[in-house]
Recover the amino acids of this structure.
């Protein structure tokens, strides 16, 4: 049987450090909006990191996976969590959004609305997504208090 401790021991040391930093950032941001960018280029590694984060983090993490028809980030998060305020939300799936540029422009336009969330929001992104955020949603990007990078190696 593989325990979470033994799986963590099998991970790249830099990714273990990034994972702990992410868990700490989420925990310290409880009760307030905080934008955290988790940059991981490999989808399978990202899923492994999310799984490990659930085991490592002391708060309950909600996951939200965007689909190809997602048009707005803020409304999607607000709609999914309108009846309950989670401890933290992790958003994944930006690669599958059909109209990503429009989503990012809309996100930048309503950026102040995100401050109404009372929980940290972790966006799982890749290098290309970071470039698009900087270009199309620079004001929203500036909300990110921390960017946490994961190497491409397990």
């Amino acid at each position: 049987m593989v325990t979470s401790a033994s799986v963590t021991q099998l991970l790249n040391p830099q990714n273990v450090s990034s994972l702990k930093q992410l868990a700490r950032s989420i925990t310290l941001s409880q009760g307030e909006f905080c934008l955290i960018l988790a940059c991981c280029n490999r989808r399978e590694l990202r899923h492994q990191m999310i799984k490990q984060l659930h085991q490592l983090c002391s708060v309950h993490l909600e996951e939200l996976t965007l689909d190809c028809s997602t048009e707005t980030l803020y409304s999607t998060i607000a709609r999914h969590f309108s009846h309950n305020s989670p401890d933290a939300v992790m958003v994944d799936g930006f690669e599958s959004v059909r109209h990503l540029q429009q989503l990012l422009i809309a996100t930048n336009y309503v950026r102040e609305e995100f401050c109404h969330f009372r929980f940290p929001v972790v966006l799982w992104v890749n290098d290309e997504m970071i470039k698009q955020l900087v270009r199309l949603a620079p004001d929203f990007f500036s909300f990110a208090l921390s960017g946490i990078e994961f190497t491409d190696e397990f």
Remarks:
- Residues 13-28 form the longest helix (16 residues).
- Strands lie at 34-39, 61-65, 88-92, 120-125, 144-149.
- DSSP finds seven helices and five strands in the chain.
- The first strand starts at residue 34 and ends at 39.
